[in-house]
Amino acid sequence: MDSTYLKGIIEEILYIWGEPIDINDLSKIIYDAEKSEIRRAIYEMMEERNENLSGLIIKKYENKYQFSTRSEHEKYISNIVKKSEKNLSNSSLETLSIIAYKQPITRAEIDKIRGVKSQSTIDSLLDKKLIRENGRLDKIGKPIIYVTTDLFLKYFNITSLDQLPKIDEEIVGELDED
Fold first, then answer.
1. Contacts of 22 by beta carbon, 8 Å cutoff, 6+ apart
2. What is the distance between the alpha carbons of residues 87 and 90, in angstroms, rounded to a whole number?
3. What is the model's pTM?
4. How far apart are CA 35 and CA 142, in angstroms?
5. How far is CA 32 from the centre of its chain?
6. Sheet containing 131-136: which strands, arranged edge to edge?
7. Cβ of 44: how many Cβ atoms within 10 Å?
8. Is-contact 110 122, C-beta < 8 A?
């Protein structure tokens, strides 16, 4: 498939899709192109948009791609886009941090680290789609396992969990001992 034609299709899909989309879903939609062609076209599009200082860039969140505006243009864009409630309470930030660094993790493990019950905070984070259930632990009671989502990455403007700030290994060890 012609590279320019493929890039046009990908651009239209990213625009219409709205949410982050992965190569597998793109290859199902663009069924007459190889995954490697699609991946190469996306990387070229990302480079071209960065080089040309295009207003819309393509951001990668883990293994998914989405159109985004440049962060340096936020002062202009924020005037026309109604901002959603982005504020998280201290307990939400604390719980979210624990989940981000210790995932997969159960509510009981979170409660033990925090020293308080976390169910309502977890419910709030689930409602905001910053975390999700990721199965159940094979233990008595089959507790739910929680992990962060792609929206978590987007919310904190990072592309993968590897970009989380490093924390002191001594602190991590203390959390594991509790």
1. 63, 64, 65
2. 9
3. 0.58
4. 38
5. 29
6. 105-106, 144-148, 131-136
7. 14
8. yes
Collapsing DSSP to helix, strand or coil, 88 comes out as: coil
Answer for the pair 131, 146: CB distance below 8 angstroms, yes or no: yes
Read off the pLDDT of each residue in 106-112 and give the average, rounded to a whole number: 93
For residue 102, what are its two tokens?
Answer: 């210790």
Q: Any idea which residue has 């977890």 for tokens?
A: 122
The C-alpha angle with vertex 144 and arms to 131 and 63, in degrees rounded to 5, equals 40
Which of 14-23, 70-79, 108-117, 157-166 has the least mean pLDDT?
70-79
* 177 has a pLDDT exceeding 80: no
Task: Report d(CA 117, CA 111) in Å as an integer.
Answer: 5
Residue with the two structure tokens 């689930």: 126
DSSP, res 72: G
